Amino acid sequence: MAQLSGEQAATTPDTFDPEAFLVVPARAFEDLQVGEVFRAASRTLTGAHAAAFQTVSADNHPVHYDAEWARRHGHTAPVVHGLQVLAFTAPGATLFPHFIGEAFIAFLELSCTFLKEVHSGDTLYPALTITGLEHKDDDGVVSTAATIHNQRGELVLSGRHAYLLRRQPSGDEPSRP
Known about the structure:
The protein is α+β, with helices and mostly antiparallel strands.
């Protein structure tokens, strides 16, 4: 029987560890830094996306699907649902959950301001930027600025998220990537 190299052995079923199969090495709360940016993949919205969100949300206001109604009321086209745009700032749309691994406890809060209309055909560029790291008892609160720009470089959404993360037990050294 042929001997497997180290790399080959690491991928055989008897040595593969799914829990060690990480997109990026997980970091502790203590390893995060204010100013770090976690981007989501850009996404061009289509009429199909808007129709799917309308079905899920049950929001049937004609501003979202009736081009003539939208024009009569001052819009250039039907407007994508604001909550659909906000959903693009979900932490899971970025690599942030991969970076924090098992430290995540809860999504505490969010707020946002819709600054520009979004229409079918617009491409969105979401990002989360760490703005604060606060110790809270044995845990930590991470605050982020949530932003979405469109293909013209216009800021269409500005907001804030806060997450509760487990901190390392006292005496443990922070992991370093």
